[in-house]
Amino acid sequence: MTIHDSDNESSQPAPGPLNGIRVLDVSTVYAAPITAMLLGDYGADVLKIEHPRGDPARTHGHSKDGHGLWWKVIARNKRAATLNLSHPAGREILEQLAADAEYRKLFETAYGEISSAAITRALASFERTLVSSNSHYDQFLRGELTLDPQEELGRKLFMAHPDVKVSLRGANCIDCHSQFLTGGSSARYDGFSNNGLDDDAHLQPGLQTVTGKPAHRGLFKVPSLRNIALTGPYMHDGRFNTLEQVLDHYDSGIKNSSTLSAVIVQADNQAALELIGGLPLSERSRDPS
Ligand code: HEC
Questions:
Q1: What's the CA gap between 2 and 82, in Å, rounded?
Q2: What domains lie within the chain, and their CATH numbers?
Q3: 107 Cα: distance to centroid of ligand 1 (angstroms)
Q4: What DSSP letter does each residue of 157-224 carry, written as one string?
Q5: How many angstroms separate the alpha carbon of residue 125 from the centre of ligand 1?
Q6: pLDDT tens digit at each of 289 positions of the chain
Q7: Angle at the Cα of 130 (from 124 to 133), degrees rounded to 5?
């Protein structure tokens, strides 16, 4: 094994919140090396392990004066060591390094034994730090702007029930997609619904996989609609690529089944038409923009 400074001039970790934490980077192109780079940016001591013939990123993409520019970026702040993992001695050294890496201990302190379930929890904790709070709708809620007529029509449609008294074509969306997080009683699994994607013959197990109850067949977690324009494809199996297709589903694609939500049935075009005598969803206020 040889240890040498990476080609980058600033191989010393900058002081930062992760100062003193040792990270072992045994990855190649590109997501994980970038993650390790970010940890290094925050001050972690990143040890990059590469094959003796050189990491492929060293020569990837454009180069200047014989040095790959990608490598310059993703190897910054890292120390590099070559290890031949095809050789038992190389593997043994890697195991020693891994046993010693600080983040293993930190992970165990935070989450207990390292397992796929614990890693899922760690990823979820990370995702919860990505907070979005300044959307057009947030600004409206804070009273910083007013909605144009089209947006206001969409808001009403989303928020309201079909109402015979005021002849309002509500679509009941808010009954399930309440605010930004799923609401209701967790004991009753209120945050799960069958929103009419499939008929009985094609209904996926959904929540039944976890609870074993036939009444939970075809029920899926009601997702947050925050940043929804950016997070396609949609539904548990990604069957819809666009929001237009999602609206087509709620407008005219609802499939009947034994566990279909009553809220969906109530907002169905036929039911709403009979109730309020109004126009179906497709003929007004469907612009998803
Ligand atoms: C009965 C409850 C219910 C109602 C009413 C409802 N939804 Fe949903 N919605 C769901 C569930 C459950 C899912 C997730 C289904 C899945 O994962 O397969 C979902 C998924 C979605 C998605 C895709 C989210 C994603 O990230 O994949 C969008 C967009 C959406 N709904 C919009 C709406 C709109 C707009 C309305 C009103 C017209 C509405 N929903 C009414 C329960 C409901």
A1: 6
A2: 2-128 (3.40.50.10540), 136-283 (1.10.760.10)
A3: 35
A4: HHHPPPBTTTTB----HHHHS-SSS--S-TTTTTTEE--S-S-GGG---BTHHHH--GGGTTBEE---
A5: 24
A6: 444 444 444 555 447 888 888 889 999 888 889 999 999 998 889 999 999 999 989 988 899 888 889 999 999 999 999 999 999 999 999 998 888 777 778 888 999 998 989 989 988 888 888 788 888 999 999 999 999 999 999 999 999 888 877 777 888 999 888 854 455 666 777 789 999 999 999 999 999 999 999 999 999 999 888 889 989 999 999 999 999 999 999 988 999 999 999 989 888 877 777 776 655 555 545 554 4
A7: 130
Residue nearest to atom 26 of ligand 1 (CA): 234
How much is the pTM? 0.64
The residue whose two tokens read 């190897």 is 75
CA–CA dist 91, 86 (Å, integer): 7
231 Cβ closer than 6 Å to some ligand 1 atom:
yes
